[in-house]
Amino acid sequence: MDQYTINLVNQSAVNQVFWVFLAPPQELAYNPGVFANSSAAMVVAPNAPSPTSITIPVQYIVGAGASKEAVGLNVVIDSDIVNNSDLSQTWQVNYANVPPPEGPNMELAGATGPDNIAITANEFDQPNNEGNGWFASMSFGIQTSSGFVGMTWSPAPGQTLTMTPVLNFYVTTGNFSNNALTDWDTIQQNSAYVSVPTDFAQNACTVTLTSNGNWNVTPGAMMGARADGVERGAGGPAIMQVPTE
Questions:
Q1: What is the pLDDT of residue 169?
Q2: pTM for the model
């Protein structure tokens, strides 16, 4: 299994909590009902002699859950059931109808395109469930060495979502909480954008929060400027100076 390492360097004057988020695939991007979900947080001391790192295996996971909390901003969603998923797999999630309130089950249901992962929800009674205070959730992401990075949404009964996963990440600092859902705008406004394979050399890259609050992304495990002199920030390859708060 391939894996990638993101080294984190803090050149500010104080300890910083670095968070890593997985960027959504095209099929989920710009959907206001899809929220970022991460528990990958690391405290990085200023000018530490060696960088703190997070290891990201290329092993996707799909998750599903049900709880008394509706999917939305700041709601903590930790899936009841998760499965490792390879590309080309389709998963069937069966949500229960209440009463009584029960969690879902999930099973491998077949194949999809070679570059895709698909998740299908059964025809559960969503209006009745939510009227009784029982809310379904679906999640997709990667389990890293430091926690889950991915996204969560409310599934539609009887619908199949087919995704084309991409290995693009946001690295940021801020007041986030483990598995508490966050909107993408908040993350993108103050983050470094890291893309596989563009920003990696020998499966590693270094993300630096500089002393003046900017982000640098450097291929490889070394610190310093990129070989091409381009500074990466929120949203992709464009040069961007992003102050921290």
A1: 98
A2: 0.89
Torsion over CA: 19, 23, 29, 33 (sign): negative
Give the pLDDT means over successive 10-residue stretches in the chain (245 positions).
94 96 96 97 92 92 97 95 97 97 97 98 98 98 95 98 97 95 94 97 96 96 44 35 31
pLDDT of 92: 98
Secondary structure E strands in 132-213: 135-144, 147-153, 160-163, 168-173, 191-195, 204-209
pLDDT computed for residue 1 by the predictor? 77
Three-class secondary structure of residue 149 per DSSP: strand
How far apart are the C-alpha atoms of 190 and 48, rounded to whole Å? 22
Task: Name residues whose C-beta falls within 8 Å of residue 113's C-beta, 6 or more positions apart in sequence.
Answer: 88, 162
Long-range contacts from 194-203, C-beta under 8 angstroms, 24+ separation: 194/6, 194/168, 194/169, 194/170, 194/232, 195/167, 195/168, 195/169, 195/236, 196/4, 196/167, 196/168, 198/237, 199/232, 200/4, 203/2, 203/3, 203/4, 203/5
Q: Where are the alpha helices (DSSP H) in the chain?
A: 126-131, 184-188
Return all residues near 194 (Cβ < 8 A) that are at least 6 apart.
Answer: 6, 168, 169, 170, 171, 205, 207, 217, 232
